[in-house]
Specification:
mainly alpha; 3-stranded antiparallel beta sheet; 3% strand
């Protein structure tokens, strides 16, 4: 068994960040499972309970996370703000309901709403014990232990599975998937380039979750992928139409701290800054056709290469 030894990696930082958020929002992950945002998994270590088993109601499960089910009161319905351009009506005077919908606020499109995260292939393979990995617990951070040499693995089989697991948000799936991806890319060399077409769909699924944590992880993985071997950046150019639409949506999602100091810049969690950095790496290593393809998908992008 070989150990990947080095500084604190991206996967270990995700675990530490989860521990900090657990102090602030104790029932965040459990609430996401109840609302269907995360895969629920099995109900016990021995599988799911029978269908006739009495389960606690939704209100009790939400109460365990600190959340409650609330319904808008009639007073809240009458205290809605007056739409722009509409005349105020004195209190107590009935107004006819609009038939054409004028004055009513439009529904949200939900383009930035988080999508439910489906169980990944990595979760299925790990639960079946089909992956040659295990967690090695150490003093400062956990590490991934490979039961075989990484250079001897079949990248066509294992690399897409690990890439599919980067959209996971639960442990140990996320830690093993993210750390495994970085280890495979670090020692893959010439084996990475032939597998690039199989990595596009897992990256697209991770970006389409619209989850800020998953998007940040996927952007860092894309940067590592492009810098891992030669010609990988050029091999990704034909697949910009699958990867770049989400980057175009979140390109302006840069946090504005005004006159405050952001002490978390080392974590690289600003999506807008990460997208700009990722696009520059794609253009630099994507060959002569990279800029025109990026410009076609993201019209606001400007070249970082000197004329």
């Amino acid at each position: 068994m070989t150990l990947a030894i080095g500084k604190i990696g991206t996967a270990a930082q995700l675990v530490q960040e989860d521990e900090f958020l657990r102090m602030i929002q104790p029932g965040r992950k459990k609430l996401d499972k109840i609302m269907g945002k995360l895969p629920r998994g099995q109900e016990s270590p021995f599988g799911d309970f029978p269908h006739d088993f009495a389960r606690p109601p939704l209100s009790a499960r939400l109460a365990a996370t600190g959340a409650t089910l609330t319904r808008p009161s009639p007073r809240d319905e009458t205290m809605k703000p007056t739409p722009r351009g509409a005349k105020e009506t004195p209190r107590g005077v009935a107004t006819p309901r609009s038939t054409d919908g004028y004055g009513s606020a439009p529904n949200k499109a939900g383009a930035y709403r988080r999508r439910p995260i489906e169980p990944s292939e990595f979760r299925r393979f790990y639960d079946r014990n089909d992956l040659p990995i295990q967690i090695v617990h150490s003093g400062t951070q956990n590490r991934i232990g490979w039961k075989v040499d990484v250079e001897k693995l079949d990248y066509h089989h294992y690399l897409p599975i690990f890439f599919d697991g980067i959209r996971e948000k639960e442990e140990p799936y996320r830690f093993l998937a993210v750390e495994g991806v970085h280890n495979l890319l670090e020692k893959g060399a010439a084996k990475i380039l032939p597998v690039v077409p199989q990595l596009v769909i897992p990256l697209k699924k991770a970006l389409n979750t619209r989850d800020s944590e998953v998007i940040v992880t996927a952007l860092k993985v894309i940067q590592t992928l492009v810098l891992s071997a030669e010609m990988v950046g050029e091999a990704l150019v034909p697949y910009y139409r699958q990867i770049l639409p989400i980057l175009n949506m979140y390109k302006s999602s840069t946090s504005n701290t005004f006159d405050k100091m952001d002490y978390g810049q080392r974590k690289r969690k600003d999506i807008g800054a990460l997208i700009d950095e990722t696009l520059e790496i794609l253009e630099t290593h994507g060959g002569e056709d990279a800029f025109i393809n990026i410009k076609y998908m993201i019209p606001t992008y400007e070249s970082c290469m000197s004329a």
